[in-house]
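Sample entry was shown:
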Amino acid sequence: MAHIVVIGAGQAGSSLCAKLRNLSFEGEITLIGNEPSPPYQRPPLSKAYLLGEMELERLYLRPESFYADNGIALRTGTHVQSIDPVAKTVTTEGETLSYDMLALCTGSTPRRLPDAIGGALDGVHVVRTLADVGAMAPEFTEGKNVLIVGGGYIGLEAAAVAAKKGLKVTLVEMADRILQRVAAPETSDYFRALHTGHGVNILEGVGLDRLIGDTRVTGAKLSDGTELMVDFVIVGVGVAPGSELAKAAGLTLDNGIKTDAQGRTSDPNIWAAGDCASFPYRDTRIRLESVPNAIDQAECIAENMMGAGKDYVAKPWFWSDQYDVKLQIAGLNAGYDRVITRPGDKENSSSFWYYTGNTLLAVDAMNDPRAYMIGKRLIEGGKSPDPAAVADPSVDLKSLM
């Protein structure tokens, strides 16, 4: 009987296993995760869960009983030491498993500050796992000084939670503006105003020189010479694809684990999905760090493991929750040369439409689900409305379809 082993018990790994059973795969399935918990959602960790608005069980992607009920051998708290593609085995601390097909859903890991500038001090946190959030939750005490390093979405979400809990928040971003790597100046301006309105001190074009402290962080020196008193630090400076096992096994890497359009790696018996995988997209190759991609790609690979021979066609979309604002993003904005602003129909709502020439690439919608949904449908349908019509609030968006 065929045995499929899935390494990585996150959104992609869990979705892949469930889809295999949904497709009536009758062989053995083993799902290996290095965390002690069953597969859970990550986005609420730094928001609702940290705020105490979501119970632990509600984080779980499926009830714990789901795996046993569906004949999925879930091995939590298990570290995979190596993969042998020739012998087709996976070795953990305790045993060696044989596989017929293997899926790598190893996600991504947060980049940490170097030890040389204080990255290893107590009180310096990253946001990725239940353990990470469990370690930092006691720090969120009203009146404390928190330094957030990095002005991307993770850093801004952490800043929003800290400000809501009454902490004194300073956020430093080395680039000229927050969100510079991922969004237009218009979106940066929107979120800068939102955060400063909630009392967050945002310092742009300023890097961290070093953290100060003997065993625990007590302060920070910035690149402009400023010194801050700090009670704890949250680091949000991006993630790296979880490709160490793949590299050690001799698989081809390219900004993550390189796959073909159907999700196969350079070894025909090994597949990859989620944050760790880079795949063909239009005329380029991308790696998407998002929940929707992890689910859709994993389910497509499950179908291909069953012989479907189907190319994965990504439909990129993302979201971020900060204070009472829901940002929804459709498409990928790489290569845009202009941004069209469309006012929303209520306070604090608007959308920014990214174009290259007359081609619509992406939409950032703040508290404007209608603009997001219509933009998403237009992009997926390959349609590009007249930018002048998009900018005119008297033009009904639906008419642009």
In short: Residues 146 and 232 are 5 Å apart (CA to CA). Residues 291-305 form the longest helix (15 residues). The first strand starts at residue 3 and ends at 7.
